[in-house]
Write a structure and sequence with these properties.
By secondary structure, the chain is α/β, with parallel strands linked by helices. Helices cover about 40% and strands about 15% of the residues. The chain has a seven-stranded parallel sheet with strand order 3-2-1-4-5-6-7, with helices on both faces. It has a six-stranded parallel sheet with strand order 10-9-8-11-12-13, sandwiched between helices.
């Protein structure tokens, strides 16, 4: 059995394709990344077809602040591209960008797996509406993804928390495949020695905005004896009121990001809605004690992560203050986190699970 991996962008699709290719389970990777860029991120000889005009359209839209083309339009265009490049026995297509390819895949006798890197899209919309963001999810995308869920043979999600949101919205548990992601254990590793500075540094990595819980994080750290560094792009329209001990760093490229983890004393991700954030696994691999919400899927990783309820400023402040005051606890949790990732959350582990749960048989 060989799988066609179709991802509009990159997400964790390149890692999935790489792991399947290494095990003889990949038919081809389809992506919107330009081929020269994709080739630099993939092993030599991996079969590839690209639709770079769609990536250029999306990035141009985002840079110019335009409303067109919409994510729905880009997803539909990519799905039509996928329908023209079908290969193999299984189509693993990203949610929101596979619908138009499903009939053609069915006609070829292919099994269809929808890869959803987050909770059920209707759950996501409900969470964001409760957080004061009623228009965060396009209703047309909700309808599109729900049609994909219904038409698929299986839906792959990264955590039990995400799977539970699908069951809560009427998807049979037997249709779900839970496969947690991985981290690059060579790139993301602990610092040779703990950082030395006047007070601890907490690190946040991700899109700086409501969905990631940043308003509650900023409120929680105000007055704490630590510094907060926020790495990542600003969510469109989000204008944070920073306390004196918080600083916006903006996005950082791969190697600079890996160094940033090693320069921190702890990691925090108080998301309201997620799948399994790669940044959480990267922080754990880097030996950082982590504070996160159950919505991040951290419960699947084990006791290495300090869990706090979403939108609970007091609990978040208490957890961060406890880590800031106890260097020994930080070191202990950091070692436990690295060990947890080594024990089952490398990309190789992810690939083995993908073959067993998506491709085998």
């Amino acid at each position: 059995m060989r799988a066609l991996v179709a991802v509009h962008g990159r997400f964790h699709g390149f890692e999935l394709a790489t792991e399947l290719h290494a095990r003889g389970g990949l038919a081809r990777l389809l992506t919107t990344y330009p081929a020269p860029v994709a080739r630099r991120l993939l092993p030599a000889g991996l079969p590839l077809a690209t639709a770079p005009w769609l990536e250029l359209a999306r990035r141009g839209r985002d840079r110019l602040g335009l409303g067109w083309p919409s994510d729905v339009a880009i997803g539909a265009a990519f799905a039509r591209f996928v329908a023209r490049h079908l290969d193999g026995d299984i189509l693993i297509g990203w949610s929101g960008a596979t619908l138009e390819a499903i009939p053609a895949a069915r006609a070829r006798g292919m099994v269809v797996v929808i890869e959803r890197g987050s909770s059920h899209i209707r759950h996501q919309a409900e969470v964001m509406a409760r957080a004061g963001q009623p228009h965060a999810v396009d209703p047309a995308m909700i309808a599109r993804e729900e049609a994909e869920y219904a038409a698929a043979d299986a839906i792959s999600v990264p955590t039990r928390f995400a799977a539970a949101t699908f069951v809560a919205h009427g998807i049979a548990a037997a249709k779900l495949r839970v496969n947690p992601y991985g981290a690059d254990l060579a790139r993301f590793h602990p610092a040779a020695a703990p950082p030395v500075r006047p007070r601890p540094r907490a690190l946040f990595v991700g899109r700086v905005g409501v969905r990631k819980g940043v308003p509650w994080l900023l409120e929680a750290v105000a007055g704490l004896d630590l510094d907060l560094h926020l790495v990542g792009p600003l969510e469109p329209g989000f204008r944070p009121a920073l306390p004196p001990n918080a600083i916006l760093r903006g996005p950082l490229p791969g190697e600079a990001l890996a160094a940033e983890y090693r320069a921190a004393d702890m990691f925090v991700l108080p998301s309201l809605e997620e799948g399994l954030p790669l940044v959480l696994l990267q922080a754990l691999a880097s030996g950082l004690p982590c504070v996160a919400t159950p919505e991040t899927g951290a419960e699947d990783i084990g006791a290495a992560v300090t869990l706090v309820p979403a939108v609970d400023t007091a609990a978040l402040a208490t957890a961060l203050a406890g880590l800031a005051a106890d260097r020994r606890l930080r070191a202990e949790l950091g070692r436990a986190g690295r060990a947890a990732v080594e024990a089952g959350f490398s990309w190789s582990d992810y690939g083995e699970r993908a073959v067993a749960r998506l491709v085998a048989g």
